[in-house]
Design the sequence.
């Protein structure tokens, strides 16, 4: 009899724990009246803004310890983060605060995001920090769905010493000059460009976008949100140039390699050029990664045609469902997008702020990037923010085919079109 | 109700609940939603068989289906054959056989992410292990990009699982060791050679386990995902795309859950058909002893 009682108790407790596991957790004000909000982030581990976000969340929790508490969940990898947000969106269980780091989730999730327009309008000081470009990127149908905090400015970095060795006296102004300089570098025994294909082929795709953006129609294309047709002269021509770069001007590990390999080749001075944003600059001075004085040998340039990636970026969104949580989330987002936080982000991570900051202590390449962006003839947006996620994914599997000549630039453009449609 | 029956019901309840919540309800959801247009940010509405019709005509589905079937066939034959041969080698329990058995299992116990990193370094162009070995034999530099060349990617990816039959070896070895000793002794007394004992007695007597091994090997290919995702991501082009990876891409990249679920139902049907076929081939409902 005793055994049966124990068995029944065991079965009941297991069934109840199962039922509890399937239950929906509703968080709210804790027993001490502190409102908790959830904030999953990809800014963790080796991500460039890890230290900044950690410091800012701790500072917020300290400053508002009697009112609010931000519960941070670390999700390594920005793509993993995006995938998780999509699953949570489908389950109608989005976290209170979302920041994607460039990926556009506003268009697909705006029905679950809080319209921040009235909250910004009632706080002119907060609204004053935001640039018009930043607000435009985060606005749909006149409603602001995310608060900008970053300006996307990207050119390319080059190794001045390797350029000198190859006899290159000034950075190329056209793509023809760029390829001539690549030939000079090759003749001097230097591999010209760092490239990659894995993940989204970030470094390579930045070059591709800059090549596309080197004309009026190309610039317009590189500022079009989610284009469906890539069968145009600009994309085909750019794909042809990328094919040539894969076949002649890059390292053997480029095809199949990820950003890390491309960056390492530049850090180890195996290559002379890499396209990337200013958040990379702090690594130029990290002697555990690069040789002594490496940072002094690196300069930044606009892409040929005086093209720069220069745009606003998707910022901080709120998906809270109750008034008290919206209030807490607003306080947090306001804190994270404040002038002080943006300045810290610039100084700690070399991330260009959305607002104008003049008194920050930054590396010379970061300031040069800002200056070049301000004076660039053509400003384009990056492919990861603009293009369909299916296209960004397709790029990585089409680049190897383009590289070994299995497909033509026209077929490459058609493959991207198929993925978009 | 008899006490024994009551106890049975009480103990089965958690299992039944688990099955209902973890498998059956989601499975029903997948089947039902496969008939709907269900995308993030769009209204959900009934589309009948449209997702299935799209799947049949989709060149990526055709490629994924073809690759999956080839891998299932190769895994069910070569992989199981390798595992069985290894089990037969280990059966006499020679000195050090346990170490050998552990070594066979190593690829199965390390994480797939770690294995993918190892394999990327083996197959990479520049200073990859395989190219270096080939260089030693040929005397000239070999720079084949095994994973990212359309001609070599398919077989390079396959090398990540085909040659590591540790699980099959363990299954078959356990079954072989349970063959009654008196039968083997009788065969030896009758003058049977080791080859004859293995092929005429041991293997036929472990037929059910062999069938199970083939099912394990075949179904592992129906759900293979991580290694492909972490090495080639289905590329170059769609040279290494399989069903699970394409289902993942349609769900999480394209955000087309309705279509993704239709593909999942197609995969389930293929899986059930394969398991039934293998059951039939190995007459697994019949026991020899």
Sequence:
């Amino acid at each position: 009899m005793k055994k049966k009682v124990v068995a029944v108790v065991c079965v009941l407790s297991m069934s109840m724990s199962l039922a509890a596991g399937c239950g929906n957790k509703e968080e709210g004000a804790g027993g001490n009246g502190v409102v908790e909000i959830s904030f999953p982030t990809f800014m963790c581990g080796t991500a460039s803004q890890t230290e900044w976000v950690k410091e800012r969340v701790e500072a917020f929790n300290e400053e508002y310890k009697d009112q609010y508490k931000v519960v941070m969940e670390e999700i390594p990898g920005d793509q993993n983060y995006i995938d998780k947000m999509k699953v949570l969106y489908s389950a109608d269980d989005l976290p209170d605060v979302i920041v994607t780091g460039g990926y556009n989730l506003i268009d697909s999730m705006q029905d679950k995001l809080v319209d921040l327009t009235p909250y910004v309008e009632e706080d002119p000081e907060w609204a004053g920090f935001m640039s018009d470009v930043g607000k435009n990127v985060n606005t749909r149908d006149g409603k602001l769905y995310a608060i900008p905090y970053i300006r996307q400015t990207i050119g390319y970095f080059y190794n001045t010493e390797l350029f000198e060795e190859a006899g290159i006296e000034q950075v190329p102004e056209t793509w023809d000059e760029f390829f001539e300089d690549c030939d000079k570098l090759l003749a001097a025994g230097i591999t010209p460009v760092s490239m990659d294909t894995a993940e989204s082929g970030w470094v390579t795709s930045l070059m591709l976008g800059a090549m596309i953006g080197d004309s009026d129609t190309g610039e317009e294309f590189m500022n079009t949100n989610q284009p469906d047709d890539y069968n145009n002269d600009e994309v085909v021509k750019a794909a042809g140039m990328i094919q040539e770069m894969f076949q002649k001007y890059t390292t053997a590990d480029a095809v199949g390699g990820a950003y890390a390999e491309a960056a390492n080749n530049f850090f180890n001075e195996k290559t002379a050029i890499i396209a990337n944003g200013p958040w990379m600059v702090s690594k130029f001075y990290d002697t555990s990664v690069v040789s002594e004085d490496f940072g002094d040998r690196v300069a930044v340039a606009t892409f040929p045609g005086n093209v720069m990636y220069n745009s606003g970026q998707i910022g901080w969104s709120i998906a809270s469902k109750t008034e008290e949580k919206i209030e807490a989330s607003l306080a947090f987002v306001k804190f994270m997008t404040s002038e002080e936080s943006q300045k810290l982000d610039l100084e700690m991570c070399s991330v260009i702020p959305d607002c104008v900051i003049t008194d920050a202590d930054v590396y010379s390449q970061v300031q040069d990037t800002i200056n070049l962006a301000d004076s660039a003839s053509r400003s384009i947006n990056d492919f990861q923010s603009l293009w369909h996620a299916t296209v960004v994914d397709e790029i990585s599997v089409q680049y190897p085919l383009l590289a070994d000549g299995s497909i033509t630039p026209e077929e490459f453009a058609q493959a991207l079109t198929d993925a978009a449609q | 109700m008899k006490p024994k029956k009551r106890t049975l019901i009480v103990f089965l309840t958690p299992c039944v609940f688990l099955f209902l919540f973890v498998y059956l309800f989601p499975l029903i959801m997948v089947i039902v939603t496969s008939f709907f247009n269900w995308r993030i940010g769009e209204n959900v509405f009934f589309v009948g068989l449209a997702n299935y019709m799209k799947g049949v005509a989709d060149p990526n589905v055709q490629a994924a289906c073809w690759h999956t079937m080839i891998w299932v066939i190769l895994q069910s034959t070569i992989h199981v054959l390798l595992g069985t041969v290894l089990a037969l080698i280990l059966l006499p329990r020679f000195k050090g056989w346990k170490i050998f058995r552990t070594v066979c299992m190593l690829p199965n116990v390390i994480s797939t992410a770690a294995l993918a990193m190892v394999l990327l370094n083996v197959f990479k162009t520049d200073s990859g292990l395989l190219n270096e070995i080939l260089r030693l034999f040929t005397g000239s530099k070999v720079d084949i990009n095994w994973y990212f060349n359309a001609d070599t990617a398919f077989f390079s990816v396959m090398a990540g699982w085909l040659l590591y039959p540790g699980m099959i070896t363990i299954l078959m070895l356990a079954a072989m060791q349970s063959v009654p000793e008196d039968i083997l002794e009788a065969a030896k007394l009758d003058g049977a050679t080791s080859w004859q004992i293995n092929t005429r007695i041991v293997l036929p007597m472990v037929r059910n386990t062999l069938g199970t091994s083939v099912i394990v090997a075949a179904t592992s290919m129906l759900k293979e995902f991580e290694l492909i995702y972490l090495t080639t991501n289905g590329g170059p082009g769609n040279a290494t795309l399989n069903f699970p990876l394409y289902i993942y891409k349609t769900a999480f990249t394209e955000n087309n859950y309705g279509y993704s679920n239709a593909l999942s139902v197609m995969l389930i049907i293929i899986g059930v058909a394969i398991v039934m076929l293998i059951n039939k081939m190995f007459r697994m409902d019949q026991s020899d002893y």
